[in-house]
Amino acid sequence: MNFLTPVAKACLLAYTSNMATAYGVDDVQHQFSVTGPMETKLKAALLEQVEFLSLISMMDVDQIKGQVVKVGDYGIATGRKKDGRFNTVNGVGGHNYELTETDSCASVKWSTLAVWANAGRQNEFVKLMSQNATRRFALDLLRVGFNGTSVAENSDPVNNPMGEDVNKGWHQIVKEKAAGQIVTDPIYFNPDAVTADLKPGEYKTLDAIVTELKNTLIHPSLRNDPRLVVLVGSDLTATAQTKMMNQADKPSEKVAAQQMDKSIGGLRAYTPPFFPGKRIVVTLLSNLHIYTQVGTRSRKSENIEDRKQHEDKYWRMEGYAVEEFEGYAAIDEANMNIGPAPAPVA
């Protein structure tokens, strides 16, 4: 369908009118600033769309460049001092963040609008449109956060479908500023291996990999912190589950296999959206930060006839940061291999 149906037009009018009322503006077809209470509402809408975002640290900051914001001190807070009161300093970490221009556009083709308009009542159409925009904006926060490696003047979504050139994400930041926190030696996850015959860099279980990663690269003061979790790629969990399911001969063992990705190496495990399939990260979720500059958010919602689609746009200054580098330990997907390690060279 290459035209906007009368029903779809009416639904779009209701949608844009509803948005104008919500943001307190006369017209959403021209760019408008999102300030004050509406900034808080927009942030809440993004968090509502993707549960994982509510687990990390999303904050507004005043400056485009500055020192990373401390959300807490991970060291000890208890002790004593002769002739005085014991105290610890909860200051900044000493490393910096930098925000960059970030522009999102969630478009819906006229053909899809027609289907949505005919599928239910007008208020359902409005809900679909609103959720489509906020969900795509929210998911992109994680897509870039886990995969971003650079800030291109002109981003290329065809060659960088995971937002690699939109911004520098958490993993890239640690690579550049604390490279020792990321394993660079080849690692082999081989669930078929015989424990007694494991070669250097070869592991039979994800538990063994995660335990060693935690105990070698996470700061000693954090290794037993109950907030520590493991982020693990779906390729790795799928391999482990398949092995366990193939070996299970009791219902209880099959249940254990299905649940194995909930806890790995004694840590609660997550596989977030768009997380690289063969990456492993041990960290505190509060250690992962997303910053947006106060007062820079702007929205626009318009029907573009030349492209035969409706476009919801969201512009802001945004960036990523890691609070404590020693609270982030990872095996990069480029160094992770699924299968047996090669035989040692004689």
Automatic annotation (TrEMBL):
Keywords: Signal. It comes from the Bacteria. Residues 1-22 form the signal peptide. This is Phage major capsid protein, P2 family.
